[in-house]
Amino acid sequence: LFRSLAQPVLERVTELTHESSSMSVLEDDHIVYVARSSAKRVMSVGLSIGSRLPAYCTSMGRALLASLSPADLAAYFDRAEIKPLTPKTIVDLEVLKRVIDQVRSNGFALTDEELELGLRAIAVPVRNRRNQAVASMNIGVHASRVSAGEMIHRFLPILQESARTIGHVLP
Fold it and tell me: I want to staple 114 with a disulfide (CB 3.0 to 4.6 A). Which of 89, 100, 108, 142 is the partner?
């Protein structure tokens, strides 16, 4: 269901931004890719439908973690294996919890070379008609080409509108 609804929207995001875009859901302590539209450039992380990545260090994961209830988020932090994947990965639990709180308050997550050096990504939750975050969408870029500020000013509005488009048709 997600893929058929999301694919044309993600392809439009990629067309507008010339960057790869993806949609994922939270499963256990990971995000699982359910749809993806790749720009011609390739990151070294080979991602496809079904790929699993840790939630704590990915933009889509943080967008979904921020939508969990306080009890579910606490349970996640109790069981998740938090380890550095790059020198920039946030692994201090108190800092990570503050970052998730900031994501909740801002409505988007921005990660900067935490999953892979050179990869910067921005994500928003995809909310269904009952306002439940059921998935998240992101745009990933090479950090040397696109600044964090540009991602917020140029890409965030496109992501937000695209997430609303998909969310309106989800039960």
Answer: 89
